[in-house]
Write a structure and sequence with these properties.
By secondary structure, the chain is mainly alpha-helical. It has a domain at about 20-105. It has 6 helices and 2 strands. The protein has a two-stranded parallel ribbon. Helix 2 (about 25-40) crosses helix 5 (about 80-95) and helix 4 runs antiparallel to helix 5. It is extended. The protein starts with 6 loop residues before the first helix and ends in a 6-residue tail after the last helix.
Length: about 130
Amino acid sequence: MNTPNDPKGAIGATKTPLALIPPYAMEQTAWVHKLGSEKYGPFNWRDTGVCATTYVAAIMRHLNAWRDGEDLDPESGISHIAHVACSCNILLDAQHCGMLQDDRYRKPDGGDDSRPVWYLQTIMKRPVGK
């Protein structure tokens, strides 16, 4: 609790408000991160990089399983929603660290081509939409 005479409280108010993340959500997501670190190594995406669509597909699979009424992932026994949060964390961190291979599908400006940017860049040998 911040009191009017608490100089640390005033400084703390300018910091990232981590106390606003629900502890249960943080804990469950941490367990999913632990499983991933045991399988692939901790923070492996910072070393190898990751494709955005790999994690988008995982997010959609877990979200769809949850939407269909399955609360827990059968392999881990942890909430599908925690798996979604974990994948979102990895996407955010990989993008922040410059290790996200952005292979999202994008429509070029003014066109109706729905092929992925990486495909168009490969066949055209130049950046697309920049």
